[in-house]
């Protein structure tokens, strides 16, 4: 299934074999991912000591459709700040939501706090945990 936008937490759940990984795998291959979230994932894998080439190979193996974060996405992510601040969403989280909104697709996350803002941002949120 490829009709969803993945958040960094969802992709990391698969890579790190965390709870909810099986639910994320149902969207692979072909799920969408913002380039901002790709950067977050790589940073986390490097923090965990994964070599750069290994991180790149692991991500390539997931066959995720990486989407650029353009001007419109950046503006949309910024405009979401007031609505998402109380839930503690990061720039990467908002980039995921902005991409999902622009594509008219659900956002898939392992972060349960997104449910509290889903209606306010106009994006269907699928939590894998």
**From N to C, what is the helix and strand string?**
EHHEHHEHHHEHE
* Strand segment tally: 5
Mean pLDDT: 96
Task: Give the spatial strand order of the biggest sheet.
Answer: 1-4-5
In CATH terms, what is the architecture? 3-Layer(aba) Sandwich
* Distance N to C terminus: 19 Å
Tally of individual domains: 1
Give the helix/strand class.
mainly alpha
Question: What is the multimeric organization of the chains shown?
Answer: single chain
CATH fold name, please?
Rossmann fold
Helix content: 40-55%
Percent range for β-strand residues: 5-15%
CATH superfamily: 5'-nuclease
From the alpha-carbon coordinates, what is the Rg to the nearest angstrom?
14 Å
Biggest sheet features = 3 strands, parallel
Quick structural overview:
This protein is mainly alpha-helical. The protein is built from eight helices and five strands.
Q: Would you give an account of this structure?
A:
- There is one protein chain.
- By secondary structure, the chain is mainly alpha-helical.
- It has a single domain, classed as 3-Layer(aba) Sandwich (Rossmann fold), CATH 3.40.50.1010.
- The protein contains eight helices and five strands.
- The chain has helices at 8-15, 21-25, 35-47, 52-61, 71-79, 81-84, 91-103, 118-121; strands at residues 5-6, 32-34, 65-67, 107-109, 125-127.
- A three-stranded parallel β-sheet has the order 1-4-5. Strands 2-3 form a two-stranded parallel ribbon.
- The protein is globular.
- It starts with a strand and ends with a strand.
- 39% of the residues are buried.
């Amino acid at each position: 299934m490829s009709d969803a936008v993945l958040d960094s937490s969802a992709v990391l759940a698969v890579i790190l074999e965390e709870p909810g990984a099986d639910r994320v795998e149902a969207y692979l291959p072909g799920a969408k991912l913002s380039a901002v979230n790709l950067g977050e994932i790589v940073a986390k894998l490097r923090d965990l000591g994964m070599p750069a080439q290994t991180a790149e190979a692991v991500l390539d193996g997931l066959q995720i459709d990486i989407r650029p974060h353009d001007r419109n996405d950046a503006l949309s992510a910024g405009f979401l700040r007031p609505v998402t601040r109380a839930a503690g969403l990061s720039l990467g989280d908002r980039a995921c939501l902005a991409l999902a909104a622009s594509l008219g697709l659900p956002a898939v996350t392992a972060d349960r706090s997104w449910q509290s803002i889903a209606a306010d941002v106009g994006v269907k949120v699928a939590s894998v945990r």
